[in-house]
C-alpha cells in the first residue's frame, strides 16, 4: 500500500466527519446568536430549533465548500480509484468467461 493509498483510504469518513463538524459549529454559533436575540428566533410558526437548523444548513454549506476543498478532492480521488478497480475486476471476469 503506497502513502497515497493511506492518505485517501478513509477520505470519505474524514470528509463526512468534518462536514458534520462544520454544521455543528454553525448550529452552536447560530443558537447562541438566536438566544442573545441578535438573530430572529423564527418566522411565523417555525419552532426555534428548526429555524436554527435551517440557518445552520444554509451557512455551513458554503463554508464546507470552501474550507473542506482538500478533503473533498481526496474523497473524489478515492471514489474514482474504487470505480476503476471495480471496472478492471469486471473486465477481468468478463475475459475469464470468454476464455471458458
Automatic annotation (TrEMBL):
InterPro entries: DUF4229. Keywords: Membrane, Transmembrane, Transmembrane helix. It comes from the Bacteria. The chain crosses the membrane at residues 20-39, 51-68. This is Putative metal-binding membrane protein.
Amino acid at each position: 500500500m503506497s502513502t497515497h493509498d493511506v492518505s485517501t483510504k478513509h477520505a470519505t469518513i474524514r470528509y463526512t466527519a468534518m462536514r458534520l463538524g462544520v454544521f455543528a459549529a454553525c448550529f452552536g454559533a447560530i443558537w447562541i446568536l438566536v438566544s442573545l436575540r441578535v438573530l430572529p428566533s423564527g418566522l411565523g410558526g417555525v419552532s426555534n430549533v428548526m429555524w436554527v437548523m435551517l440557518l445552520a444548513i444554509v451557512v455551513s454549506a458554503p463554508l464546507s465548500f470552501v474550507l473542506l476543498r482538500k478533503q473533498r478532492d481526496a474523497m473524489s480521488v478515492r471514489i474514482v480509484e474504487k470505480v476503476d478497480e471495480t471496472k478492471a475486476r469486471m473486465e477481468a471476469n468478463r475475459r475469464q468467461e470468454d476464455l471458458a
